[in-house]
Amino acid sequence: MKRNTLIGAGVFTLLAALSFAGCHHRSPEGRIGWFVEEAADRLSLDAVQRERLEEMAKEALERKKQMHADRESIRETLMVELRKEHMDRAVLDGVVLEKRRQMDEMTDYLVDSAVAFHEMLTPEQREKLVSELEKFHTRAEKYGHHRW
User: Fold this and answer.
1) Rounded CA separation 109/27 (Å)
2) Average pLDDT rounded to a whole number, residues 90-99
3) Where does residue 77 fall: left (phi above 0), alpha (psi -120 to 50 degrees), or beta otherwise?
4) Among 12, 51, 96, 128, which has the highest number of CB atoms less than 10 A from its own CB?
5) Arithmetic mean of pLDDT over the chain
6) Residues whose CB falls within 8 Å of the CB of residue 114, separated by 6 or more in sequence, listed in order
7) 40-70 per-position pLDDT tens digit
8) Predicted confidence band at 35 (pLDDT cuts at 50, 70, 90)?
9) Each residue of 109-120: b (16+ CB within 10 Å) or e?
């Protein structure tokens, strides 16, 4: 059980780190495309696994876009409150609660995706994933980047 939890956390970390902080790609589409290519190549995914990973990546990207779609309305709400003599705590709490709800939904989706991704891998691919994560961690520590 502990090993599965550790592997699930590792997959989640890999998905999150590579999806949202992919090296040199400037757009979210570029970062997630890079991640899918890297994962498919490094883990030798078959066509079905690759297609499922692409679906997960596309869904994550759509959820991210939806999450960021309301930024302007949040900014406007905050600007209105800042212009008032007395800010309305209930309005601010509502904005924060909505953002937390969105973040919770995204986190749930990423964890569910990590579990589904892990379950579709063969035992050999899981070992390769762990090996790649260990290499990633070692390189990150070498340069003082403690990612997880």
Assistant:
1) 21
2) 92
3) alpha
4) 12
5) 85
6) 8, 11, 12, 15
7) 999 999 999 999 999 999 999 999 888 888 8
8) confident
9) ebbebbeebbee
Give the N- to C-terminal CA distance of the chain in Å, as an integer: 20
Q: Which two tokens stand for residue 123?
A: 């035992």
Tokens 């066509």 -> residue? 47
**pLDDT-based confidence at 106, cuts 50/70/90?**
very high
Q: Is the pLDDT of residue 3 over 60?
A: yes
User: Tokens 């986190």 — which residue?
Assistant: 107
Structure tokens at 26: 């400037």
- Tell me the two tokens of residue 105: 């939904």
User: What does residue 55 show for φ and ψ, rounded to 5 degrees?
Assistant: -65, -45
Phi-psi region of 113 (alpha: psi -120 to 50; beta: other; left: phi over 0): alpha
Residue found by looking up tokens 């899918």 in the block: 36
